[in-house]
Each structure stands twice: as C-alpha cells, then as structure tokens.
Amino acid sequence: MMEFTKQYPVIRYEDGRETPSMDEVLAECSLNVHINGRFTEVLHCIPEYLEEMLLGRLYTSGVISSPEDIMDLSICPSLNRADLKIRETDRTMVRLPDLHICPDHILSLSQHLLDASELFRKTGNVHSVMLCRDYAVLYMTEDLDRSRAFEKTVGRALKDRVDFAGTSVYTTGRIPRPIAEKAIWAGIPVIVSRSAPTDLTLELAAEYNLTVIGFARRNRMNIYRTSRDGSATPSFPSPVMPDM
Q1: Under CATH, what is the fold of the domain 101-222?
Q2: Name one Pfam family in it (predicted).
Q3: In this structure, is the dihedral angle defined by the CA atoms of residues 144, 148, 149 and 155, taken in order, positive or negative?
C-alpha cells in the first residue's frame, strides 16, 4: 500500500519548552498534464486515484460527457506526467432535479465525514469529499486540495457508472463558485459543507436549482435555496424522507 505521509524531525514548542520530535507530513505529487499532445496544467495532489482525478476533472469542467470520451490515458509516476487523448464534447449545464433528504441524515453524514478522515488526524492537512445516496456513503476521498478531492470522488463514481441524480456531496472545505460548478456539471443536486458558500455560489445555485447547505455542524445548518428572483424557497421540498 502506498504511503501518503512522511516522517520529518521537528522541534515542538509548548509552554516555553522545546522538545525534539517527529512529525507526520503529507506527501504531495505534482502531476504535469498533457491533453491531445499539448501541456495544459500542473495538478498538485496526493498520489492516489490519479486516473479518477483526471476523469473527474474533465467531467466536472464540462470538457467530456462520459468516460468513453477519454480514448487513451497513461500516467508515468517517475516523470510526474499524465498523457490523455480525449474527444471534446459540447456540453451545457442543466437545471438539477429536487432531492429529498432527511435533515437528521445530513447532519449525521456531515459529522461522519469529519470523523472518518484518517489523514486529517495524522497531518491536519487534507480536505475530504464524500458522495452519498440517501443515508449510504458511496465514496469518500481525501486530498490536499478540495477540488482534487472532489474530482477524485466524482471520477471514482463515473468508473462505476453511478447515477448522480439521486446523490448528495459533502465537503470539509468552503463552497466557492468553482466547487458549485463541479457539482452542477456532475449532476449532483445537493452540496453540504461544514463551512460557508459565497454569493457567486448562491447566484449560480439559484439558476441551476442546486441546494447548498453550509455550517452543517452538530444540530444545526444553513439551507440556501433561492429562486432566480432571489426569494427564499422551501428548504426541503415535500415529501421529506422519513428517518431510517
């Protein structure tokens, strides 16, 4: 099994005293991405689920419509290089369907996301993203970048032919517009965070019927559902799912 942390010597300072110790530090990979023969970008990430990350990134950016649009994909770890041959498609964002979720389930799953992050407990240096259906966790992925964690999670689901229409996604990070865009491109109708969205996120969410939930902690959360004219709409369209 690949190790995603390394041990480094540190001096711990506490209560006026210095003590030599060892610290567990996250391993970071710089992946140079080439698409159709052209260098496109460098992605910094944990060296895990790299193929899924590339698949999820292209899909949640609207570049491809399905895994079949990637005609060839190769990764050379020693060179930190990925080469892809893709067929670009003409996708557009579409409004998302309503999704009925029990509020208690949302709060419970949000807490589970925090509790289940082993790498965060070791390093304090990762974001986590979790894809769920009803009360079931389908996938959970950790990465140093919240976008990479999101892309890896979606890519794993795409490989398994998951229907995103009935899913919700949970993240430990903030919800800026680029993250909301990824949820919409993927077709995920609900996004939940322990942190906050931005105004641009909520404007986009109103246009595409994305339910945004922020500050989901313990027994409370903020549910952001607004219509295109800016008026509030019911937080959970009836009927709400019963407790399981």
Answers
A1: Cytidine Deaminase; domain 2 (3.40.140)
A2: FdhD-NarQ
A3: negative
In angstroms, the CA 212 to CA 199 distance is: 11
Rg (CA), the chain: 19
- Domain 27-84, second-level architecture: Roll (3.10)
Per-residue tens of pLDDT for the chain, all 244 residues? 467 888 999 999 999 999 999 998 898 999 999 999 999 999 999 999 999 999 999 999 999 999 999 999 999 988 999 999 999 898 999 999 999 899 999 999 999 998 988 888 888 889 999 999 988 999 999 999 999 999 999 999 999 999 999 999 999 999 999 999 999 999 999 999 999 999 999 999 999 999 999 999 999 999 998 666 556 665 555 444 434 3
Strands 127-133 and 81-86: unpaired
Among residues 52, 8, 6, the alpha carbon closest in space to that of 28 is found at 6
Quote the pTM value. Answer: 0.89
- Euclidean distance between CA atoms 191 and 64, whole angstroms: 22
